[in-house]
Amino acid sequence: DADVTQTPRNRITKTGKRIMLECSQTKGHDRMYWYRQDPGLGLRLIYYSFDVKDINKGEISDGYSVSRQAQAKFSLSLESAIPNQTALYFCATSEEQGPGANVLTFGAGSRLTVL
Amino acid sequence: AQKVTQAQTEISVVEKEDVTLDCVYETRDTTYYLFWYKQPPSGELVFLIRRNSFDEQNEISGRYSWNFQKSTSSFNFTITASQVVDSAVYFCALSEGRYGAAGNKLTFGGGTRVLVKP
What is the C-alpha to C-alpha distance for residues A45 and B96, in angstroms, rounded to an integer? Predict the structure, then answer.
């Protein structure tokens, strides 16, 4: 099984619908992140969480919310999807300290299309 | 605010040619980390290298090499003797601060697509 698992891998939805993207990890990392990838823009940080009780906005959090249900689970919600939220979404984890700190382990991505 | 610029959006080469990907960064921190990630056509993101701001030594790993120059705020990546399997999008990224602080947040460049033709 993958270290970081995202579901669903692909989703097509309509404007105004609520969507949840889920992420679970077996790395035992405290830190989890949601990024969005758009062509030519690279990856941009939506939200991040340094532990279960810590949630922080990234650079593009408007229109999104998150929930850290457990150390291993971090979900991203779009309360009312709009077409410009069509993108590839990545969940990632990292260690807090040590040789693996700052190094993100990514999930396989969730491609979301909003019609 | 931190920023990463990858001016080359796409590079096309013939197999066995060398290819260099440019990365220029901006940061006000004296402690920071630079990264390269590879995204092959399958879509996953693969970590290639991390370099901290205090270590300006160049690094070589097989056909990959990295040139870090603080004087020009650049962290360039060279693939020597390119192969078709090197075809991918490559991202340069920057995180500021020390371990345990905000330093785990990465800012990515826009990516450079490399196409290696047989």
Answer: 14
